[in-house]
Design goal:
Helices cover 81% and strands 6% of the residues. It has 4 helices and 3 strands. Helix 3 packs antiparallel against helix 4.
């Protein structure tokens, strides 16, 4: 059957059979044609249209806000990356300076120790020569000197 009426209470379109069965007690049944004629100018449609426009505006604002959030996130990430790069550069400069200072101190210490060792070697070589000379003199004294001369020579060597 064809819908000819509208029940405001149930907010449904109705046919004559529906009215007889489901809408016997409903008092706000209207002709569907009257409802249709008023629909374009109805407050309900205007309210719905206004609500849709508000919804679209809200969605546009939300989209703009979220896009702004994305832009801010990208800017912040770049800013942090730049800060990290600056800190890394400063740390590298500090470490390079520290490395040069330590290497200079090591070279100074190495040169001092090397000089001390060379001086000690020179002294030991001189003492070795003296010891060799004394050893040769002892051999010569034992071989050619008298007992008294060996006694005097050993006192001098000591």
């Amino acid at each position: 059957m064809k819908y000819e009426n509208y029940c405001q209470y149930h907010d449904k379109d109705c046919c004559p059979a529906c009215i007889a069965v489901d809408h016997k007690s409903c008092t706000d049944i209207m002709l569907l044609q009257d409802v249709i004629n008023k629909v374009k100018t109805s407050a309900s449609l205007n309210t719905t249209e206004s609500n849709v426009k508000d919804l679209q505006s809200n969605i546009d604002h939300i989209l703009a806000d979220r896009q702004q959030n994305l832009d801010i996130i990208n800017e912040e990430r770049q800013r942090y990356q730049n800060e990290i790069t600056q800190v890394r550069t400063k740390v590298n400069v500090y470490l390079n300076t520290l490395e040069q200072k330590i290497l200079k101190e090591l070279d100074t210490a190495k040169n001092k120790i090397k000089k001390d060792i060379k001086n000690l070697i020179t002294e030991l070589l001189e003492k070795t020569k003296v010891a060799n000379t004394l050893a040769e003199e002892i051999v010569a004294i034992k071989k050619y000197a008298t007992e008294y001369q060996v006694y005097i020579g050993s006192k001098l060597i000591e």
